[in-house]
Amino acid sequence: MKKIARGVGFGIAVQFLMEGDLLASGGGGGFSGEVVWQMVAFGLLLFLLVKMLRKPLSAYLTKRRQEIGSALEQASQKEAEARKLFQDWEGKIESLSREIQDLHEIIRREGEEERRRIVDRAREEAEKVQRQAQVIAEQEVKKARLALKKEMVNLSVELAERLLKEVIQPQDQERLVREYIGKMREIR
Predict the structure, then answer these.
(1) Cα angle vertex 143, ends 141, 148, to 5°?
(2) Domain spans, the chain
(3) Are 5 and 51 a contacting pair, CB within 8 Å?
(4) Which of 80, 91, 154, 186 is the most exposed place for a label (fewest CB within 10 A)?
């Protein structure tokens, strides 16, 4: 407000100084009182304007200063909130990135473990099938051996019968039957 009053005072002083130059220049008819009255009226008008507008203008400027200060403070708060929100989201993104990496690692480990289990199961199953095949093969070999022995016995008996029929006479056969019956009685 003081700046406005100084500006008005400076304007009036310049007006007085210029008035003297104008009066001293040749075309005027001397000092005119009308100019003085105009200057007084102008000064009075300025005085009234300053007097009447000082409080409203001062109140408006004060209010405007407060509004601007409040707006700056709100902008500062919003900027701080935005920075905090940005940092929060940045932290969340970083956290999610770590979680994704952890999940990738877990999935990889579980995949490795599952692969190992499948390979172990397949190996165990193959060993089981191999053992079963070996047991079956051994059983088949035993059956074949028994069949061969049985066939050999049958062939041997048949061959022995033929030989005995050719070599043993009927009286030898009776004697052998009696001896066999005798041995059977002794055993009983």
Answers:
(1) 95
(2) 1-17+37-139
(3) no
(4) 186
* Beta carbons within 10 angstroms of residue 120's beta carbon: 10
Q: Which of 111, 123, 1 is nearest to 54 (CA)?
A: 1
pLDDT digits (tens, 9 = 90+) for 16-36: 666 655 555 555 555 567 888
The C-alpha atoms of residue 99 and residue 95 are separated, in whole angstroms, by 6
Encode pLDDT of 60-85 as tens digits: 999 999 999 999 999 999 999 999 99
Q: Please give the Cα distance from 39 to 46 (Å, whole number).
A: 10
C-alpha–C-alpha distance, residues 38 and 79, integer Å: 55
What are 167-184's pLDDT values in tens digits? 777 777 788 788 878 888
Structure tokens at 95: 């956290």
More confident residue, 152 or 113: 113
Q: Are 39 and 33 in contact (CB under 8 A)?
A: no
What are the CA-CA distances from residue 5 to residues 18, 55, 135 (Å)?
20, 14, 122
Rounded distance, CA 77 to CA 159, Å? Answer: 120
Torsion of CA 148, 153, 155, 158, to 10 degrees: -160
* Cα–chain center distance at 1: 62
Single-letter residue type at 150 = K
